[in-house]
Amino acid sequence: MDPGRGAPGGSRDPPPHARTRRGRQRATSRPSVSWVKARRSTECPPAPEPPGPGSGPEPQHGSWADLPADILGLVVGRLPRADDRARLRSACRAWRAAARAHGRPPPPLPLLVLSDFTFSCFCADGAMTTGARRIPLPSRKMAVDVRCVGAFQGWLVGVQLNKGRYFGDSRCFLMNAFSRDVVRLPPPSVATHFIDAYSRSLPIANGTGAVHCTVNGAQYVMSFCKVVLSSSPDPDSKCVVAAISVHRSAAKLALWRPGMTSWCVCHGGCISKFSDIALYQGKMYMFSKLTTNLFVFDISKDDSGLMVSRVERCMAELPEVNDSYGQRWNLVEWHGKLLLVVTYLGGADGWHNICKIGVFEVDLSTNPFRFTEINSLDGDCIFISPCSSNSFRVCQYEGVEDNLIYFIDGGFYPAKNAPAFDRFVYSMRDGTMAPFAAEIPEDNLRALDGRLMNPTWLFPSE
């Protein structure tokens, strides 16, 4: 036995890396740090030792479903987009319940819904999301020849085209884009009606001509291009629906409320020259596209449902703008007030040739109405489209610029090869304009035959 083998202070055979070719031993040196790291990287980590009798319980990894409800509520409140909130709620039942239980977050930023129910989200930086995502409809049958023509909060208005060329729309329905609840409205076009018709002709006060209204008409054909609601169509609600129809160049106004089996159809007078409509404080307001006249429709309720009881013309005195050859008007409700947004058009198509954007608060207590121009939206923005326009309080979210008006507009008439929609944003601070929604391809705003598909802004409540 080697006397030094195993002795605490004896020498051992040198490791292979310390030997010379001839077997002579050289002085040993401490391995370099890089060599030790390389050696350790190739070795398997030692197996964990079993817990001893005195050690504590093994740590448990919690489930994502067990996140505290107050934390999830804070997360939802910091998600400004509706699609992101929907993804969070769809993760699991626990997240969905927790997100709804922890208070009500601020309303999400609006969605732009195209005529075929595809949509794009408005982002905090003022851009629009890309990608063709479609709001699911309750059934395949309802998705055939359907188009979106209006919105109110989380509700969308859909109509289906009759298969005949001049038969108008065959169906009309309201659908909640998130719960997918459906309220079916009377068909916009009927050939025969078996209930006695009720009609009324109303001369226009302070104007000329008359408006003719009929409930349970024996025959009418309508093709809706814009539908507005006074409130959500919840059970036992007093929601009023007003629709504008343009069919074969003839315009009609249609009114409905829950319980009616037919539309109250109105035509004649100012209806044939409408520019925009709005339901406000129990009345309907219509702006004429030829003259600066605002018409007020008083709506009464009786055994037949809804009926127009009075129509009055109110003069609108708006300032003139040099080099403007025409105007386009949009009615918008803002903080309980009625606003008129006026686009002063230049001598050529396109938003680059717009002369001015004017925003006027309408004073309905005077006759004629008084229009006062305003220069601030007090932390809000306005979103305008052919089928739906509204204001939104963007100051609830950090990084979202306020006092802006976003336009995707150009009129209601879906003519083939019509000029593209004007897509721009207007700043009320300095009066400048810039392009908007360039992320949405032009083809997405047109049908296969080249007709423009009117988009609508959707403002979810949560």
Automatic annotation (TrEMBL):
Domain F-box residue range list: 64-100
Location of region: Disordered: 1-64
Residue intervals of the KIB1-4 beta-propeller domain: 133-426
Superkingdom of origin: Eukaryota
Compositionally biased spans, kind Basic residues: 18-27
Residues annotated as transmembrane: none
UniProt xrefs under Pfam families: Beta-prop_KIB1-4, F-box
Biased composition (Pro residues): 45-56
PANTHER family: EXPRESSED PROTEIN, F-BOX/KELCH-REPEAT PROTEIN-RELATED
This protein's name: Uncharacterized protein
Organism, as annotated: Dichanthelium oligosanthes
Native organism taxonomy: Eukaryota, Viridiplantae, Streptophyta, Embryophyta, Tracheophyta
